[in-house]
């Protein structure tokens, strides 16, 4: 009985993990898009260099996290 219960629990856990992973990729793409839009806005409106550089760093980190998600 314990083995059967473990198998059922394992299937539920796998379904939850798959659902969680399916949510991560669109979120990464959405956040990257928002960062790129914000970077373009800052550049276009002549924002201080420190803000532009911070947003550029954020874009770079979002790209790295997206690449990590794609290689899983």
What's the end-to-end separation, in Å? Answer: 34 Å
Q: Sheet with the most strands?
A: none
Provide the structure class: mainly alpha
Radius of gyration: 19 Å
Secondary structure: helix percent: over 70%
Order of helices and strands: HH
Number of helices: 2
Overall geometric form: elongated
Low-pLDDT runs of 5+ residues are none
Total beta strand runs: 0
Mean pLDDT: 80
Strand content: under 5%
User: What is the quaternary state of this protein?
Assistant: single chain
Descriptive overview:
This protein has helices spanning 2-44, 49-70. The protein has 72 residues and is mainly alpha-helical. It has a domain at 24-72. Helix 1 (2-44) runs antiparallel to helix 2 (49-70). The model has no long low-confidence stretch (mean pLDDT 80).
Which descriptors apply to this entry?
single chain; 72 residues; mainly alpha; elongated
List the helices and strands and how they pair.
Elements: H1 2-44, H2 49-70
Give the gist of this structure:
This protein is mainly alpha-helical. The protein has two helices and no strands.
């Amino acid at each position: 009985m314990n083995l059967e219960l473990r198998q059922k629990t394992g299937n539920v856990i796998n379904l939850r993990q798959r659902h969680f992973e399916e949510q991560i990729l669109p979120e990464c793409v959405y956040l990257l898009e928002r960062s790129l839009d914000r970077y373009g806005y800052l550049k276009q409106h002549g924002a201080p260099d420190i803000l532009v550089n911070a947003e550029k760093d954020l874009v770079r980190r979002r790209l790295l996290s997206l690449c990590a998600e794609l290689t899983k």
